[in-house]
Structure prediction request, 167 residues.
Amino acid sequence: MSEPTDTTFPPGVQRVAAALAALGHAHAPRMLDDAARTAQQAADALGVALGQIAKSIIFRRKSDGAAVLVITSGDRRVDEKKVAALVGALGRADADFVKAQTGFSIGGVAPLGHVVPPVALIDRELFRFAEIWAAAGHPHAVFRLTPADLERLTGAPVADVVAEVAA
Prediction:
């Protein structure tokens, strides 16, 4: 792993690093040796629990076409009905929409540093962990934070946005 300290790193990672620095976050993005396009790949690469990966899922709000960002725990599935009850009816966001709205490709969407600020929600399930990891603008880039950091950095409310887990 290496830290993105110069312009040899992808623009998305540079944008996330700048946003983190501007907000006074202590941990810069790190580049992984292998791609971590899925939460499982990221957890395996970092040697952490799947739930410690903060997945950034993008939807398109039907009423106005706004991007809706749901940051959820890697071991949970978003319940679209719960999200829609909070922000309005949702539609699917294709790769072109995600790239245009966030500036990131699917598999590297960070929770901050978006081209167009999204409507955002944080999954309360992330608060089960003292430390979590999020994508940093590229499928090879991640950064470390706490759930409280995520709330502070994004300004997003914490909500129940995931499907019930079978007992």
Remarks:
- The first helix runs from residue 11 to 22.
- The beta strands are 30-31, 53-61, 67-73, 90-92, 119-123, 132-135, 141-145, 158-159.
- DSSP finds five helices and eight strands in the chain.
- The chain has a mean pLDDT of 93.
